[in-house]
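Q: Fold this one first, please.
A: Sequence and structure below.
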Amino acid sequence: MLPVIQLQKGKAESLHRFHPWIFSGAIRQMPETLEEGDLVRVVDHKGEFLALGHYQIGSIAVRVVSFDNVAIDLAFWTKRLAEAYALRKHCNLIRHDNDIYRLVHGEGDQLPGLVIDVYGKTAVMQAHSVGMHVVRQTLAQAIIDACEGSISSVYYKSETTLPYKANLNQENGFLIGGDDCDVAMENGLKFHIDWLRGQKTGFFVDQRENRRLLEHYSRGRNVLNMFCYTGGFSVYAMRGAAQCVHSVDSSAKAIDLTRANVALNFEDTARHEAFTEDAFKFLETAGSNYDLIVLDPPAFAKHKGALHNAIKGYTRLNNIAFRKIRKGGIIFTFSCSQAVNKEQFRLAVFTAAAQSGRHVRILHQLHQPEDHPISIYHPEGEYLKGLVLEVE
């Protein structure tokens, strides 16, 4: 029998609307012996079944894995992962020229606390909850079983994503297989993927379609890719026939990867230069040489408490770009901060445009792609926001 968590009267409404989180303040009673990561049965104040989920210490006390009273076993996880895999196939993301995609996007795939990115034949799995960590080996086998032979290795990378208070002493490593090929393909372009030491799972999969859009605008332009990380936008700009591409990041390791990725795709790399430098300083000292600028910074706000400073950061960054870019230039500007909503980000960009005194038009409003789905019952899953702007 699973341990039971009972909710207070009036606290079941969100579950009836299929929201997958139960907050600690909604709990009426639970077993004293409950351990973090345990699978629990959630009932209302009358004892009626509501959901099954993973218990966790903190504000979000339960992450729901099923609203049906079913066995949570290998067959359950395999079915969920097979559904996720089928969606990516239907979206035509699994092709001979594209083997980089997100297989699982947490709540968007009814697997809260779990992220899985695929690079070639390797799936890189991250647990953001103790519950998913506990079943990691079962999940690894379910990935192999669900993906029709396309995955042969599963790498577990959760050292930095699990709750630090859980004291799990987790180390990254392969759960199944051990593929040492670090090159995968996105829309016909090759990339070295550093899933061992790189940020996130090793690559920013969520910008795939936005990189392709940038390629469309790159012909004949001088492109500046700020916060370039592994150079995704730079490589697409090169294929788009940009006149020159400059990549900037404060990390020397990121710059090395950017150079390697450019060289992996182009014999003539003379159009590309990379700089290890602070982005704000580089922008301030740069001349007005660029007519396409990419602003894709790391999250300025990882929680609501940092919101004010984040808005100031986005405003300052975009203001510098507006002042520097050539007449008729294009700016791709993004926020990946979940704590900053679309309206707040757009207001920051509007403020920056007004401060610069330039006339600015919105050409595109960008967001995360189809392999980062958002459950309609969990709007918190929307995090990536972007604008493509023309500056007259």
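Q: Good. Now the second chain.
A: Here it is, same layout.
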Amino acid sequence: MKQQKKGFAAFLERKDIVFSAKRYGIDALGAMAQGLFASLLIGTILKTLGQQLGINVLVDMGTFAQGVTGSAMAVAIGYALKCPPLVLFSLIAVGSAANQLGGAGGPLAVFVVTIFAAEFGKLVSKETKVDIIVTPSVTIGIGVLLSMWWAPSIGAAASAVGNAIMWATELQPLFMGMVVSVLVGVALTLPISSAAICAALGLTGLAGGAAVAGCCAQMIGFAVMSFRENKWSGLLAQGIGTSMLQIGNIVKNPRIWIPPTLASAITGPIATCLFRMEMNGDAVASGMGTCGLVGQIGVYTGWLNDMAAGTKTAITAMDWLGLGLICFILPAVLTLLIAMPLRKIGWIGQYDLKLDV
């Protein structure tokens, strides 16, 4: 018979407040990335399309979407934390405050502050007869106060780490290109959010290009490597969806992760050293790879930003060649070549890459 919890532990259970790495590091972080996608990222895509096609209404749509980035992230996090409606709606103000006060590191500030505001809001939710006043007041009050207190420092710290990574990549493009490509690519396949990590650190420039390379190596690599098992549905699901679909198979046989990871270790330095591929669009795109072609759109948007800033004169054939090779051709070819001997020696079995798609 299950022992009944008592006291504060029972209260937390009733409020669905769970202190765990999964709840905060996977559920909340992954939801934050979706909030980013539904605001900043889609807004950037719409705005860029509008500017290129001369359609002002698309530019306006994109601008409005970008303007609610902090609120969208906060609501997404609150949804993942299973907040009651009044708490969830109150997080709109919290996310806006944290994102603005966090500066370049706003996404990380939103992540940290929203978790605290959401959990405190859940504690008082429906505990009084004036819930409609108490719950929003506590949620917004704690969230905004913490934003004023913490967000500038959190944002500055995140920016400092991101700037250090970008500086190191400029200084040592071979080594750091490999490290960033592999780590961000691995994060993309794990049940955490590489997009949220890149956004939180503001990862752009050469480091952003390496991150794009690593993510593409994982997605295109798994899509092509598993084509014999999963056919076209698997190719599309992984190639423009997510390589995270393979995480169950990776747990069963970690060796299937070797080919795309080695491919990312090769394409990252090629991106940074040979093609000098930079991702100067929104940092969240650095961690998206070929998911909806967001990584490639981010690179293209970065080219436009550089041209507008006067640091780039034109988009060259070399730019397009590098983008095609790094994001699509090399990941497919390298992963297949690395996988072939592993299949022959039995490290990758006949059904090890099979998906239920």
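Q: Anything worth noting on the second one?
A: Residues 69 and 343 are 45 Å apart (CA to CA).
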